[in-house]
Amino acid sequence: MVQVIPAHIKDVWDEWNIRGIVILSLSIQTILIILAPLRKRTSNRFLALVLWLSYLLADWSANFVIGLIAKNQGKELKPDDPPQDQQLMALWAPFLLLHLGGPDTITAYSLEDNALWHRHFLGLALQALPGAYVVIQSLPNPLWVIILLLFIAGTLKYLERTIALYLASSDKFRGSMLEVPDSDPDETHRPRKDDSMPNNMQEYGRQIRPLRLEKPARDLAPLDILQFAFWFFNNFRSLMVNNIFSSDQREESREFFSKLTDEEALRILEMELGFIYEGLYTKVSVLHTWVGALTRTLALGSLLSAFCIFHYRTNKSHEFHGADIVITYTLFLVGIALDLVSLLMILPSDWTFAVISRINDDEVDSGSRIDPFLHWFLGFKKLRWKEQKCCDGKSKHEVLNTPFLIQRWAGSIKLFNFIAYSVKADIERIHDVKGRTRRLVWKAILHPFIYAINTFRKLFETIAIWHHDLQQYIRYVINMLSRKNPVTRCIIIFVEFWLMIPHFFTLIGNYITDFLGINDLLDEIILRRSVHSEPLTKELWVFIFTQLKSKLQRPDKERSKTKAGRKGWASDISELGMADTKRLVRYIADVDYDRSLMLWHIATELCYQEEASTKENCDDREFSKILSDYMMYLLIMQPKLMSEVAGIGKIRFRDTLAEAEKFYKRRHIENSSVKRASHEILSVRIEIHPRNVKGNESKSVLFEARALAKELNKMREENMWSVVSKVWMELLFHAACNCDATARMEQLSKGGELLVFVWLALAHLGLGGQLGSSATEMSETN
């Protein structure tokens, strides 16, 4: 019988399979503990891939090696095996239960994992049974005390994970809002000093709620920011699952946020979103309760006790393999070290500081003795801004430049520009924090490879275009020369064969992608090459928050209008401050949101390239450009987040892209600059509006956007960029109010999104859709 796998390879596998996978499981735990906290600070796809693979392999490796250990217990010993080696391997089984409990820094990779808490609870019992079977098979075992202690530690760690998943599940969030009925409406939101934490989510530690939610007359200190953020997190958790909240809550929150400065609001929002992230994706919500403190103390104490007994009271020199002793010590020491590292990560966290501090009710109260240290430490983690020149040096803006390891979110905005992508132009950055020199070096390194790839791609495209004509011509020549010169015929057939190779590989590639259904994935990968990040500027956030607060000046009845009560997706166009608004009504009113977004995106880019920057228009022009590219990125690259408003955005994008590429080919401007492409589009003379020519059947908006750009250019004397920037504010606010709740929370584990900040600010200002219908009707009646 032929052996597919050589005997010596099988022997190595039989000897090292358990040992190798145990070390693999421990390595995965180390990767998760160290790298998991980074994912809230960056959207790096490589980091996301590493964490995703590690998260999936963590459970698989632990389950697999427990099965191998169970199988090993019934195997006959080899002559050179120590007599009690199997008993030591039985000691590894509860270590795997510890690993299944997962690290403190990540309990769920995505929100779907929280919904599967039932499965993990069942897994606790199912994983304990194989472990118990392994121990029973190894009896009598002198290590039974150590194994028992490790079983206690592993069971408690697994229980912590299951509870954390349960508390972060959407059903628990929704159910918790109904646990305590409001028996006395006069006492709603007026807690006493000795009020305990609300019952929902079993109490993230001591409730820290002020006697009344009121902003002090002074600027908020770092500790004040933290405490108010934690208060909002505890009392507005229902926002995470799109629950409505009462008008009392709305008014309380609106009054407080309307008095905040722009940076104070940003700092509170980022801390509140940080609390939401920790509650959804980590064990912090469990560890800061008395149950969590008890289970962690018992688990760590059991682990330390087991190590001491193994080290001081076990005779290891003649009973076990030397490699197995080393592995066991590694499991103990690294396990203890990882637990301590996890605690060190949790102790200086915002959540810990919020639990141990308290809000001062008056200026005379100096707070607790630890408050000065908390002020200093939180001040060290505050937002950092860096001044940069922009608008060709005509202006300066402050960009967010917080050091990576103390960031609470990515602090950047991802941008995608349609015209730059369609014409295959280089990315133009407005604020280059990382430095132009560094990017030029990387570009010089990668340029030869990119040039070679583009050359081959163009060659294959040319061959594909001319292949049909060449094939007909070659067949004609073969027929003419086949009788006179057989050698020539063979040469021509040989050439035709080589010309067919690129076409053959193209057909095979298309067949594979169609069969696997990954065409959309490949398109997304290609699109992402044109996505780049811009740091958030203080001026842009001030503009956004100012526009939000300006909406509070409208009457309550107007603020409470539903989407159905509006003409189109936007507010009254007269609010945009234009002298003559009739020319632009057709691009906003009664227009699908995705169509309007693409129209204004292309028109904004055309105007941006046409009009140079000046000191007067710098801010509005830059805000319009950044928001335009950001909203285009959301529409095309974040379909789940924009699913409520995206409509047929992707179909419209593809049709517009196809029309743009045909136009560029006719004008011979492929692979040119954005400025030249914009100039060519604006130079087209159109007598009849494209929408009247093509009707509603056409999905392309390229030349309709050109008509909008022409209309906007007529308004240069009326502060055109002020109008355009306010239109983009309307587009942004509408998307924030209607973004998908699940995708919104998932963004917190991918570096965060500006849209999520805007959504939360809208909710706290009472401008979103989180107000009960009865309250809305009452406000309209009044």
TrEMBL record:
Matches recorded under InterPro entries: DUF4220, DUF594
Domain of life: Eukaryota
Keywords assigned by UniProt, alphabetized: Membrane, Transmembrane, Transmembrane helix
Source species taxonomy: Eukaryota, Viridiplantae, Streptophyta, Embryophyta, Tracheophyta
Source organism per UniProt: Arabidopsis suecica
Protein name: DUF4220 domain-containing protein
A Pfam family annotated for this UniProt entry: DUF4220
Region (Disordered): 178-201
Keyword ATP-binding: no
Transmembrane segments: 16-35, 47-70, 142-159, 293-313, 325-347, 490-512
The UniProt record lists the keyword Transmembrane helix: yes
Bias (Basic and acidic residues) ranges: 186-196
Domain DUF4220: 52-421
